[in-house]
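HUMAN:
Sorry, I am quite new to this. Are you able to go through these amino acid letters and fold codes? The numbers rather puzzle me.
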Amino acid sequence: MMHQDIHSILLITLSNIGDAVMTTPVLTALHKKHPLAVMDMVADARSSVVFSHCPCKGEIFLKDKQAGWQGLIRLVKQLRMKRYDLVVDLRTDGLTLLLRARRRLTRRGNKAAGVHAVERHFAVIGAREGISEIPATCVWLSQHEQEFARRQLAVLPGTRWLALAPGARWAAKRWPLTSFQALLEQLQPQFDGVVLLGDKGDADSCQQLTEHMALPCLNLAGKTDLLQATAVLQRAALFIGNDSGLGHLAAACETPSLTIFGPGDPLRYHPWHPQARWLQSDSGDIADVAVDEVAAAISGFHAPAWEPEENILPRKHTGKNGRKIPV
């Protein structure tokens, strides 16, 4: 099949927010290779917002894991209404075999250039599409999200803002609040203000942090959607948080970041960006990551000058900035 014959693409992406962000290099590369193609996507309700303003987006089909076989049958019926020139499946759950497609690409039979999830996803299309360079992760913002961030951040002095996210989906991934408090005391001279981010479940933790904070603070926990949070992150000088989707959103808008890992594999799942650093103790216990180690890890960060853009298209990832801390 000639590349100019590709007019319709279906990209089957992943469910979690961070995972979805790490599939965007595939989307970007496909769009560059086939600029006239419309790209439908299969995504999860939680993460589909990441693709809301993608310029090549067609329809977004939601896959509901909780709906079981009945939900899968409904999804297949929807997808079979079209015949795609190319289906790219980053899940490899067999869905492509049930669809009408001229060509199918899955994870089977390809070899990734490295261990990172971005490299593993990109291997699905790289050699087969003749693409060698992996684009950066990206998120697309509209003027609406940009204006939201501008209004919210107008209450803070200066421009050296620290974005902080103390939450995570489960307790073992949350660095202790007392550690965040101690870190804020150390970092106070470096910043003009702090922005707290998270969902409604993080509101109490963020409120506790505000009660012990000397710096001016804006608590947005539970008050933003994902794209609004990304627009706020785009304007921050630095992001610090646990292993969660917000770290990947920060990387997608070129904000320097430090992710604190508990259990998990940072070499595979750290945010994909040259200024995305990470820390993890040898024990895997996030409480063993010391405040002084975090403060030392962010020294020397350079925050790029912020320029408002509708599309966030960061630089190529060029290294693995992280280390394990012996305890």
Notes: The chain has twelve helices and 14 strands. The longest strand covers residues 38-43. Residues 68-79 form the longest helix (12 residues). Confidence is low (pLDDT under 50) at residues 304-319.
